[in-house]
């Protein structure tokens, strides 16, 4: 069997071809995520959280390496596609915490309704009073639900799934950063109140932050996030007509 013998020029051409850059993009994305996750476990500061650090580093690398966005998404779009089947896993915490749901049905229901409506109304007001590109404004309306649900629901509004995912990410980061000062300002002290607030306003990032505050906070935030996401997907055709 003959060995593969590539010249430095051939290796360089392969690495900087579209396929090579797409593969590098995928590897860089995974590497940045796992490094950020490791750093955050060692040092619990907000700017090392994977949802904050990884996107910033990846964006800087993509621009500095002059990687075209279509090339970047050639392989990394599979990471986004994995979010859709991941929604099936949300059935597990609902089943596991069914006793908690039966214990606080009214609080969770009110949190879901308030979070869903206030999130959409605030997005609608922003779109109405701030001039934004059409694609961005349509993608913004479902920013207050978790990424898998938002990407599924945004098509009813005519939004772009990738833009919606970015808006969801920004919303979650902001919610994660401002939650504790707001809890102090609004005198929200109960684990139930904190969990519902974080799950309703900051979805996945909020649920992660709630888990840091306490076990019950994390469970309540996860349940609220899941129910809001389900409500958004089911009601998206109706909401699209109302908020169009």
What does the secondary structure layout of this molecule look like, with pairings?
Elements: H1 8-15, H2 18-42, H3 50-64, H4 69-81, H5 83-86, H6 91-96, H7 98-103, H8 105-129, H9 134-140, H10 147-157, H11 161-186, H12 191-213, H13 215-242
Transmembrane segments: 15-36, 45-63, 75-95, 107-127, 163-183, 219-243
Pfam family, one: LrgB
Membrane topology: Multi-pass membrane protein
Descriptive notes:
This is LrgB family protein. It is a multi-pass membrane protein. Helices cover 81% and strands 0% of the residues. It is an all-alpha fold and 244 residues long. Helix 8 packs across helix 12 and helix 8 (105-129) crosses helix 13.
What fraction, in percent, of the residue positions are helical?
over 70%
Spatial separation of the terminal alpha carbons: 64 Å
Rounded to an integer, what's the Rg over CA atoms?
20 Å
Major sheet size, sense and barrel closure: none
How much of the sequence is in beta strands?
Answer: under 5%
- Helix and strand composition category: mainly alpha
H and E order:
HHHHHHHHHHHHH
Count the DSSP helices.
Answer: 13
> Could you give the count of β-strands?
0
**Which descriptor suits the 3D outline?**
globular
Low-confidence stretches: none
Query: Please, what is the average pLDDT?
Result: 84
Give a quick set of tags describing it:
about 80% helix, 13 helices, about 240 residues, mainly alpha
What's the short version?
This protein is mainly alpha-helical and 244 residues long. The chain contains 13 helices and no strands.
């Amino acid at each position: 069997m003959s060995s593969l013998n590539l010249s430095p020029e051939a290796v360089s051409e392969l690495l900087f071809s579209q396929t090579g850059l797409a593969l590098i993009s995928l590897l860089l994305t995974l590497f940045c995520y796992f490094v950020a996750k490791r750093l955050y476990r060692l040092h619990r500061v907000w700017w090392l959280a994977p949802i904050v650090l990884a996107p910033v580093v990846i964006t800087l690398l993509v621009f500095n390496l002059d990687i075209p966005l279509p090339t970047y998404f050639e392989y990394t779009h599979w990471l986004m596609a994995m979010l859709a089947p991941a929604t099936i896993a949300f059935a597990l915490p609902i089943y596991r915490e069914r006793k908690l749901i039966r214990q606080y049905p009214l609080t969770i229901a009110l949190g879901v309704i308030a979070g869903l409506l206030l999130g959409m109304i605030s997005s609608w007001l922003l779109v109405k009073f701030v001039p934004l590109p059409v694609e961005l404004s349509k993608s913004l309306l479902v920013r207050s639900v978790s990424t898998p649900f938002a990407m599924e629901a945004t098509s009813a509004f005519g939004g772009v799934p990738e833009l919606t995912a970015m808006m969801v990410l920004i919303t979650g980061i902001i919610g994660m950063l401002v939650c504790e000062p707001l809890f102090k300002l609004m005198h929200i002290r109960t684990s139930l109140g904190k969990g519902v607030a974080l799950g309703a306003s900051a979805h996945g990032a909020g649920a992660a932050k709630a888990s840091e505050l306490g076990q019950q906070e994390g469970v309540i935030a996860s349940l609220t996030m899941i129910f809001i996401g389900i409500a958004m997907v089911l009601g998206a055709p109706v909401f699209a007509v109302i908020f169009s």
